Structure formats: structure tokens, C-alpha cells
Fold:
Amino acid sequence: MDDIKELQRIIDQSDNIVFFGGAGVSTESGLKDFRGKNGLYKEIDTNYPPEYLLSIKCLLKEPELFFKYYRKNLDSSNIEPNITHKYLKNLEDEGKLKAIVTQNIDGLHQKAGSKNVLEIHGTTYRNYCINCRMEYPNDYIFKSKDIPRCICGGIIRPDVVLYGEMLPEAYSLAVSYIMKAEVLIVAGTSLTVEPAASLIKYFNGKHLIIINNTPTLYDSYAELVINKPLGEIFSKLK
Structure:
């Protein structure tokens, strides 16, 4: 049977689906991934590795360097959702999709209209003061210059999980949804980044589907593996 037809059959027969996505979900909107052959990690224009440039240590010790890199590479305010984001929004509206678990910080699922989005790495659309926790508009950091400062004098940071930080409560919620799901669709992720990749181990449902351009370490556990561009697949689903 054709892979896309089989995927459609599984979706049609379930009303308890969870979608777990990575950077590949947003690349077709024009955003670059991190570890791909043309990803951000291949374009380092400083003497520092990206793991440092996007770390809590860099933010606190060298905030000028942190914000310079952050502004240049992580602004998704002018990026629009693609067919995958829109399809998932419709699937949620139909009551079939219970949650979207995303490693992305670009906010495109919400931009498409999805409601129950669990951002396990945080989001660039929320900012707050390190000292007093006052919240600032989603584009505040990108429109500011130098080090963004709160009225109390503290640094305003993005609500993004930086290297060296713990994952948010959304991770525990993701575990709960995945454990209860009948269908888990994993898409646009190589499943190499921990602890996010380990989420797949909590799935005990009927149908595990992995959609990615390249093979993953978890392909042998999946009922259905599709190595095609996401847009090609989700544009053919009803």
C-alpha cells in the first residue's frame, strides 16, 4: 500500500493523535535548522561554538555576544506557517489531534492557529526580566539594540531553553500526552537531541509513524517510516 494512503488510513481511524515535531517542520517556511548540512551550526562566523553562543553561560557572561547571535539567527517574526502547520491546525479542529509537541521555538504552530502546543524548548515569542520576571512583548529583543534592559535594570531574556538549563514543565506534559496517545506522528526531527528524543520511548500506543528526510535511530520501532519532504506528504492528506 502507498505510504501516504496508509498514513491517511491511520489518521482517519483515530481520534487520539499526538504530533511530535522538530526543525524539519519549519524549514519549508524558510527557517534554517540547526544541525542539517545547511543549518545554523554550519554558519558560525565567530570563534565560539553555537552551543556556547546559545547557552545560559554566554547570556550571563557575554550578553553582547549572546544577543548579537540571537538577533541574527532566531528571528521568525516575518516567517509564515507552511502546509504542515496548517494541516495540524485543521486536525486539531476536528478533535483528532490532542497535542503538538515541538522542539521548535519559532511559534509557527500558534501562528497557524493551533491551541495545544507544548514547546519543550521554549519560545522566542515570550521574553522576561531575569531579575523581576516582568514580561515584555514578543518582538522586544529583536527590536532593541545592545543588551535589552528592564526598567529595574535586569537583562531581558527570551523564554527559550538555553544550553545548560533544565527543560520546562511542557516536557512533563508532553510525556503524559504521548503515553496516552493511540497514534504518535514524529516528523522533521533526526531524534538525536536528548532528552527530547527520549520522548518517543514513552509511547505505548498502536501506531508509531516517523516522517523525516533521512533515517533515524528509532526507525526500527515504527510501523510506518516515510523519508520524503513533509510538504509533499501533508499536502496530500485530507
In short: The chain has a mean pLDDT of 93. The radius of gyration is 18 Å. The chain has two domains: 1-30+80-121+166-238, 32-75+126-160. The longest helix spans residues 169-180.
